[in-house]
Amino acid sequence: MSILVDKNTRLLVQGITGNEGLFHTQHMLAYGTNVVAGVTPGKGGEWVLEGKVPVFDSVRIAHEATGVNTSVIFVPARFAADAIYEAADAGILLIVCITEGIPIQDMMRVRNYLDQKGIRLVGPNCPGLLTPGEAKVGIIPGDISMPGNIGVVSRSGTLTYEVLYALKLVGLGTTTCIGIGGAPVNGTSFIDVLGMFEADPHTDKIVLIGEIGGTDEEKAAEFIADHLTKPVTAFIAGQTAPPGKRMGHAGAIVESGSGTAADKIKALQDVGVQVASHPEEIAELLA
Amino acid sequence: MKLHEYQSKQIFSNYGIPIPSGRVAANAADAKHIAEELGGHVVIKSQILVGGRGKAGGIRLAKSPQQAEDLATQILGMEIKGLPVRKILVDEAASIETEIYLGITNDRSERKPVMMASSAGGVEIEQVAKETPDKIVKVHIDPLLGLRDYQARDMAAGIDLPRKHWQTFGQIGRGLWRAYIRSDATLAEINPLVITSQNRLLAVDGKMVLDDNALFRHPDLAEMRDVDVEPEAETEARKYSLSFIKLDGYIGCMVNGAGLAMATMDIIKLHGGKPANFLDIGGGASSEKVAAALRIILSDANVKAVLFNIFGGITRGDEVARGILAALQEVKTDVPMITRLVGTNAEEGRQILSEANMITAETLVDAAKKAISAAQGGEQV
Fold it and tell me: Which of A96, A266, B7, B149 would give a disulfide with B3, using CB separation of 3.0 to 4.6 Å?
């Protein structure tokens, strides 16, 4: 029914006692996500949200005590890389990092370390994942999508919500929606997710939401041509973005003329991907 | 954050990279004084954060302290690409035999730093990459291991550097790597690295760009920011943690989320309008933040309408609406406001705003069209 997260997800929340962590844990629980433990160093032994979730001092202890299989990270940027290493070293195989603003050199070290261990990271600077009706890992509002046969992958947050909501208004739902994040160096790329959607029997169509900066969309286009049988519909944000300026996301920047929206749109169209001219049009194209 | 040449070279020097003797000056008298200390034969270099200074006449050679003073007066009175020259670097002039390029940057697609060297120094590396790519040698550096000595030797050999310079080149390469890592740079570049007629290697020009997200661990480097280079509104926006970029259109945009903010600009353009800015107010939307954002948008006299596009996810639409109302109490304006609220509690939010006599829109397309029409003095729905 989905990729990466579902009803078998046993979720750990790193940074659970912080404002963000606590707030979103409440929403994840309300959605029905199986949140089994939290970590805040120094607060082990406490319980949060009216005794629903136990807090541990470290990921290792939480893992041993509760058998978590996925971690979502809400800790501030300056501690986030360490939180990812801690989850990886404790043997968590799927790590979702919501935190924005992690230094890029930290992320290069993290990514190279995780690759050696074969651990999947989603994010950072992402809204996380939503498998409607089963699990919400991160901050995607639960009520803007419903179960369906479309797989959604995006570098953005609210822009993704916009598309999910537009799909819902025309009666279309999703298998899984995954935000891979707006960081220049992240854990999971479009290609990784496209491969997973292609392999998922319940996903029939794919929506890809990209933006300026880097070459991930161009690589996705090559991958689509070589490996995908399912139809892909796309939208690329940033056609009006001036070169050399970071458009909010650290990764959204046109540098030395590369990474423009026009290049990405052309690469996708050249391999038969329908590219919408605005986000609401995605729903029209798929309805 | 970009650093000036003199700042970059000072950092390089701290990591053992040889640089010319010289000092920065803010007036012609100081420039003359520095030239006297350096023996008269100096190069006067404007310190601005855009490329192309040489072509614009912002780098000049002086043969005497008096000439240094005259040239300094000229250069300090210049504007280069709209930026006033406020500082000049006075460096001892080097007798250059060979010019090399050496730089480190982040390779996003390889997720590793990449070190590049070229025998075609003194030219922008992008130009070399386009015209003579075979003259560039690249090595990817494992961020967990750092630059290996053999990699530096490979680069030296790759650009046909005479063997007698390999050892010094290796030291400079390691110094540049340490400067890049310890400053959390996204670019550290020596261009040119020269071989002088005395057979010395010398970093004659340097450039560093630092990762804004890492400045929290480098308070000393954060202080080096030169705000002259950016529009005042962008400096102001940073104080409120707003992500803002000024554009040359007439429809102000206030959006939550970077991707949606870009898409909002795009759709305005798609329907024939021109966005005045990119602005991401981020999660939540307290009246304080909305007011600050509104002040910044309206500080641009070209703005003829403001479009609020808010997707209420976890942030509730009614809260955002109250934030906007409170901001409007504080920032009085006649500029028409168009609001599109979608998602959680959007209906309540729209109710609150309609009482405040704002133009409301349902869809993104509708919002863009209404904003364009309002900006052109059209009907105010």
Answer: B7
**CATH 3.40.1280.10 assigned to A11-122:** no
Indicate if B101 belongs to the active site. yes
* Chain A: closest CA distance from residue B41 (Å): 36
Q: How far apart are CA B196 and CA B194, in angstroms?
A: 6
ipTM of the complex: 0.93
Backbone angle region of B261, left / alpha / beta, with phi > 0 → left and psi within -120 to 50 → alpha: alpha
Note the pLDDT tens digit of each residue in B214-264: 999 999 999 999 877 777 888 888 888 889 999 999 999 999 999 999 999
- Alpha-carbon separation of residue A39 from A63, A66, A266 (angstroms): 10, 12, 45
Q: Check if the beta carbon of residue A279 is closer than 8 Å to that of residue A235.
A: yes
For an interface test with A, the pick among B210, B311, B341 (most A C-beta atoms closer than 10 Å) comes out as: B311
- A161, A217, A282: which to substitute to probe chain B, counting the most B Cβ within 10 Å? A161
The predicted model gives B292-313 an average pLDDT of 91
Q: What is each CA distance from A136 to A95, A128, A133, A200, B345, in whole angstroms?
A: 14, 8, 9, 18, 20
- DSSP of A36-84, one letter per residue? EEEE-TT-TT-EETTTTEEEESSHHHHHHHH---EEEE---HHHHHHHH
SS3 of B169, please?
helix
The residues pairing with B370 across neighbouring beta strands, listed in sequence order, are none
Rg (CA), chain B: 26
Chain B CB within 8 Å of residue A218 CB: no
Report which secondary-structure segment, H or E, holds B129: helix B125-131
Count CB atoms within 10 A of the CB of residue A20. 17
Q: Tell me the C-alpha distance between A216 and A181, whole Å.
A: 12
What CATH number is given for A140-286 in this structure? 3.40.50.261
Give the C-alpha separation, A264 to A121, whole Å: 24
The pLDDT of A240-251, averaged and rounded, is 89
* Widest pairwise Cα distance in chain B: 79
Tokens of B8: 């970059």
- The alpha-carbon gap from B115 to the nearest alpha carbon of chain A, in Å, equals 14
Contact with chain A for residue B314, Cβ under 8 A:
yes
A249 vs A254: CA distance, rounded Å: 12
Report the interhelical angle of A261-270 vs A216-227 (nearest 10°): 0
For chain A, domain boundaries: 11-122, 140-286
Q: Same CATH fold, A140-286 and A11-122?
A: yes
Is-contact A185 A202, C-beta < 8 A? no
pLDDT band at residue A73 under the 50/70/90 scheme: very high
The answer to whether residues A58 and A91 touch, using CB atoms and an 8 Å cutoff, is no
The DSSP-derived string for A174-232 is: EEEEEE--S-SS-S--HHHHHHHHHH-TT--EEEEEEESSSSHHHHHHHHHHHH--S-E
**Pairing label, strands B201-203, A35-39:** unpaired
pTM confidence score = 0.93
Using one digit for the tens of pLDDT, what is the confidence trace for A179-191?
A: 999 999 999 999 9
Distances (CA, A) of A97 to A72, A157, B59: 6, 13, 47
pLDDT band at B282 (very low <50, low <70, confident <90, very high): confident
Cβ pair B262:A27 closer than 8 A: no
